[in-house]
Amino acid sequence: MGEPQPHRRHCGEIMKTIFAAQEDDITCDECYAHIDQYVDMLRTGQDPAQVLPQVKSHLEQCRCCAWEFQALMDILEAESSETSE
Amino acid sequence: MSERTNEQWLDDLQSAGTQRNRALEDLRARLERGLLFYLSHQQGYLGDRPAEEVKHMVQDFVQEALLRILNNLNSFRGESQFITWASKIAARVAISELRRARYKDYSLEHLTAEGEIMPALAATALSSEAASQPELQAEREEALRRLDEAISEILTERQRLALLAHVVDGVPVEEIARRMNTNRNALYKLVHDARLKLKRHMEKQGLSPEYMLALFGGG
Predict the structure, then answer these.
(1) Is B87 in CB contact (< 8 Å) with chain A?
(2) Looking at this predicted complex, what is its ipTM?
(3) What is the pLDDT of residues B138-147, one digit of tens each?
(4) Are B167 and B187 in contact (CB under 8 A)?
């Protein structure tokens, strides 16, 4: 959970970040605009990649957005488990 | 607490008086609950802060989030649950502040100095497995030397700085953007363009992405 600590990253991670980059990518703002829809689809058992493939691709390439995505999932999980009690 | 529909959330928050206040307090309570749980599990960013301090931080984050939510109600498109959309805003507020605090002492200066980055990394990052396989070690060192050369030769200075700060030092894009007087989107594009440039350049030199990923176990 969370981003790596601010120390030099492992070579394998660095290579993956550089060499797994895809040609088409959306901006962080475009990802953010749709991340709530993406998360809700995941949480209701749907496959958001069918509807929002570029969001999925961006999350695989942008660690910052990936962290925010996971945080949103965790927050909603915590919030809904308390609400249902 | 009965669940409001999206329409009810919007109606209540755009109304006045008791109806609006009740909706605001319900929303505040839900966002605080979710954020408190989340931040309680972020020891890497919060260290040993007392529970009471974390609670106050959450309250501040949620207050800021509520202002943004109220100012942007017209941008809610109804493609998700309102709570999800609101939680998204609260999460970004909290994470942005955590990042700002965590990286407050980070500077790009060490990246502007001349010198090899990748081989220096290799010296500290080579595993014991590689150390016992001299050919593998030599192959990795050569690949890193060529990557370092590419970073120096084909990237602009801004691309080089942004790439090294994000990819090597692991600094979040919004923190680098702040230091380079730009915004998160522009910085991400700068890094992304740099990554693609390097990938294409190395491939032209016979070092395919598949080869590099396999060589360093990053696949």
Answers:
(1) yes
(2) 0.87
(3) 888 888 889 9
(4) no
